């Protein structure tokens, strides 16, 4: 199920709970709607609202932390690509073919991680990406002096770092959100909105306020789910660093 669909279901469920409360209100007897009853319910819902806010904050912080970590890894990968190309350029003319392999590898990585067709999902699995060809091309270089020996060793290390970053992005592609925790938070929010609807006056202003509140809360859930999938959806990690790195290759 897409993040849009989940966000819409959360909105319908939460706002529907408030409307259900309004529908149930006429069925309650007068003593159920007394001031003492309202105060007691407000105290209980205040506690639930506080716990829901804390857990919602934890979910946002966790999703944002995972998003920032993967964004940093993409930036590091772009920097290492350019650094590797410069090391190969300093090696000499013998590395021309190796640099061409590096360029093809970067182009392939960009097309797989940021597909042009919006309907396609990002492919983060490094298997079949051609990384082995880059390692093989670097290993085939035959240094003729100490400088080339140092540059080859440096290139091998950078290529290994790039491989580790690609696999790190892949293993982090799973969800960082605890779905049971998210379900509990949504349930608490529905209970809160139900209590609001139960004691709120039935008029346009009240319904509009509850509608906007439900939109805000479901929007927060939607953003959490979007941050959890940084290479798909609306809030994507930018391909700018990798494309900038590609533009500097071969120069």
Describe this structure in words.
28% of the residues are buried. Helix 2 runs antiparallel to helix 3 (96-113) and helix 6 packs antiparallel against helix 7 (204-227). The chain has one domain. It starts with a helix and ends with a helix. The mean pLDDT is 88. The protein is an all-alpha fold and 251 residues long. It contains eight helices and no strands.
Brief overview:
This protein is an all-alpha fold and about 250 residues long. It has one domain. The chain is built from 8 helices and no strands.
Task: Itemize the secondary structure elements and their pairings.
Blueprint: H1 3-24, H2 35-91, H3 96-113, H4 131-139, H5 146-171, H6 179-199, H7 204-227, H8 240-248
Helix pairs in contact: 1-6, 1-7, 2-3, 2-5, 2-6, 2-7, 2-8, 3-4, 4-5, 6-7
Tell me how many strands there are: 0
| Unreliable stretches | none
What class would the helix/strand composition place it in?
Answer: mainly alpha
The topology string of helices and strands comes to: HHHHHHHH
Radius of gyration using CA atoms only: 27 Å
Mean of the pLDDT scores? 88
Portion in strands? under 5%
> What's the helical proportion of residues?
over 70%
Shape estimate: rod-shaped
Task: Please give a handful of descriptors for the protein shown.
single chain; mainly alpha; 251 residues
């Amino acid at each position: 199920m897409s993040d849009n669909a989940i966000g819409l279901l959360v909105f319908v469920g939460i706002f529907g709970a408030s409307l259900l409360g309004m529908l149930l209100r006429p069925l309650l007897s007068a003593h159920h709607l007394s001031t003492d009853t309202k105060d007691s319910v407000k105290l209980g819902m205040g506690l639930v609202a506080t716990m829901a806010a804390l857990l919602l904050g934890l979910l946002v912080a966790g999703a944002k932390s995972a998003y920032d970590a993967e964004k940093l890894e993409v930036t590091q990968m772009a920097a290492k690509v350019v650094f590797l190309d410069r090391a190969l350029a300093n090696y000499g003319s013998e590395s021309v073919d190796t640099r061409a392999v590096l360029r093809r590898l970067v182009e392939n990585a960009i097309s797989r991680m940021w597909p042009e067709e919006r309907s396609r999902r990002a492919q983060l699995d490094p298997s079949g990406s051609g990384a082995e060809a880059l390692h093989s091309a670097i290993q085939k270089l035959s240094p003729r002096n100490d400088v080339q020996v140092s540059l080859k060793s440096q290139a091998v290390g950078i290529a290994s770092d790039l491989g580790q970053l690609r696999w790190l992005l892949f293993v982090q592609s799973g969800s960082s959100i605890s779905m049971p925790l998210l379900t509990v938070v949504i349930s608490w929010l529905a209970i809160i909105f139900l209590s609001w609807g139960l004691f709120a006056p039935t008029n346009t202003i009240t319904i509009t306020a509850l509608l906007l509140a439900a939109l805000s809360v479901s929007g927060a859930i939607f953003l959490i789910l979007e941050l959890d999938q940084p290479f798909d959806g609306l809030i994507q990690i930018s391909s700018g660093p990798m494309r900038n790195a590609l533009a500097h290759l071969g120069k």
